Predict the structure.
Amino acid sequence: MSAPILSVRDLGKRFGSLIAARDITVSFPAQQTVGVIGSNGAGKTTFINMVTGHLRPTHGAIHFEERDITGLPSRTIKAMGISRSFQVAQIFPSLTAFDNICVAAAIGHAPKHFIGHVCTPLRSREAVAEAEILLDLFAIGRYRDTLAATLPQGVRKLLDIGMAVAGSPRLLLLDEPTSGISIEEKFDLMQVVMSALRSRRITVLFVEHDMEIVERFAERVLAFYDGTVIADGTPAATLADARVQALISGPKAKGAAGSVADV
Amino acid sequence: MLTAFAILVDGLVYAAYLFIVAIGLTLIFGVMKILNVAHGSFYTFGAYGAATAIGIYFDRGLPAAGGFLLMALFAMALGLALGLILERGVMRLVYGRDEVVMVLVTYAAFLILEDIVILIWGTGSYATYQPLLAAGNTEVGELILSNYDLGLIVVAALLAAISYWALKFTRYGRLLTAVIFDRETAAAFGINVKVVYTVTFVIGAMLGALGGAIMAPKIAVTLGIGVEVIVLAFAVVAIGGMGSIEGALIGALIVGICRAAAVHLVPQIELFVIYGVMALVLLIRPYGLFVRAQPRKI
Amino acid sequence: MAQHGRIAASSAFLAAAAAAFVLPDWMISLATIAFANGLVVLGLIVLWRAGLVSFGQALYYCIGAYAVALVGRWTGVSDAILLVLIGGASAGLVSFVVGFLLARYREIFFAMLSLALSMILYGVLVKTESLGSTDGFSVIVPTFFGYAPHQDGLLVALYWLVLAVCAIAAFLVDAYFRSVAGALAVPVRDNEIRVEFLGLSVSRLIHTKLVISGLLGGVGGALAALAVGHVDPNMSYWTTSGEFVFITILAGAGSVGAAFVGSLLFESVRSFAFAILPQLWQMLLGSVLLLTILFLPQGLGSLITHLRRRRRVEAP
């Protein structure tokens, strides 16, 4: 039984008298796909921010691949192999889709020290090759030479995730990957994303409000409420949990596959 | 003790002048998010206009009060005209563009207007100290204070009070505050933002021109006064916070007193002090004393 | 620049150098100043690409110039190359120190703070009697490795020096633009938060760009000081910075060459306008600026790129 890729112990964060996260103890085996649910303000984003190094935990510890990363700066954590995507796709509007990923790949491949950045060309062979591969992997090859500013929303989200994958992270946190996407397209998008990530053997934690997506694509579901984890198990088990239904997902209609009141 | 009092008075006078000049600039920025370099032109036109008015009025033995009024009105009329022409003619063409592009457009306008001043008034300088003389002096102990200067302080205080009252208690003032706070939402609520823009720009222009008119008797009205004033006004507005009228007031007071102190105690650092204070404030409060940074949602 | 771009640029510089044998003195003089100022504009372009507009490049220009003037006056050192190196290094050092503060700002606040810093220097210089206050003072006559040319020889020597420095700077900056650090300017301008999340320190990147532009500004100022033979506080005034910004807008930030072509254009027009209608010089400047912003937002350089692109499409 190999060590978990990410383990978190007694993690907590407070801002003055506001407790954003508390007593989070959970660990994730490598290559697991985990759905994270919870209403707004429940602590999901705080959790992500602490894992990616953008927020310093007030107490507790985070271990990635058995190394203590608690409180390390975000750039170091990124270099160690943890990446994230965004609720609002953060792309470079002036560049083509290809260049967007090429930039991400170049930064991922560039020598870690600063002088290296001045000496390495942007369109190095490695970066270009990786960009081509990722464009195909996320099925957005036909948008290769389109300016990112003009891309449709779904493609933007895929581009955003593709950029996060350039540089070969081993753990990827997706913040609401299907937000802003129409219901018809959500499943297709997640299908592309998940098979891409699986082929790269990346451990995935994704935040979602759409319970159907969570059911369909997660192997395990974590439910957040009031800053802490209130349920942790298979999708079926977690979504059937009474507290989860009361506080987050709403009652599940018998026979119907859909959830009712997600936020 | 005397020096301290002199510094206080000089500081207040200078602060008054700075406030009158800066309030228009900060208003335009607050509402339209434009850092208006052409504000220096409003000032220049106001000063030259006042010089002309003084030349016409003052040596005829008419009551001085009328002269003051004429100066102010003539300058504000120029400001009104200039503001309208600039806003409707030029600014309208570049709304929605990058903030810095807007600054550059106003810089272009400023350059053009500088030469228009030469075309109208020539390159000579105008000495128009008649109003100063007409106002006379007041003696406070050993100090002789110019009544004109004291009047300046009163005008600035009045302006501050009026703008505070107008923004907080009049309907239009609250509309303006709404637009300053969030233009899109204000427009969504039915506020005609275009009209607000024009009115704001014109008011800002008139205030800038008024500033120039008020200072005309105290300085040599000549080429280049607009150039100096711009940087000063910027410094005041940067210190106080762009778009904040209280900020302009506090900024003006800080700069005014610091400069007066420098002039009386260490004259070599007079110019340095103003920009030094600005750099210092920006170090601690990057957006000025009264303005908070806007976070971005990702 | 692709390979042929590099060849074209080298040819241009060589042609410009050779032109010294046929051009009248006043043209050589004008070109010398234009190229020296072009370096400052090049520095502005480096920042412009990252979305930063500095209204205070005059600070480095002035530091470079005064460093040359002071070293000449106090130590008698007159070797042109040494002086330029000292000027550049002084400005570079200041930009490095100042960069810690400045790298935290963007947009208007960056512009205003950079303006404030240049005005601080102006204020200090104007009030310093020992440095000639508003009159400034003169610069030592430069020598070149011990050789002291006179008159025409000096004019040409300075011209060639400036050209050589500009050529070196042009190639270095161009290489920089193609590196990761240089090419990241656009992503930083577009979405610097994402660049941070991709693992790069944006403030360090911008700090580097500030130092590069400071160095270029300082070298430009040093060369200008040697060429003109005089320095004064006006070199740090905000209107000087404004002129550099104007050239940048006019030329566009598209290429390294734009800095020098734009600067040449500006100096030429300025000389003619001054000679013919000195009263309307600023109006001309302002009108051109306005028209450029309205109709050619990417500067004249974009016209050339546009023409080049069309030609490529039309060729079989």
Notes: Residues 49 and 185 of chain C are 5 Å apart (CA to CA). Chain C is about 75% helix and 0% strand.
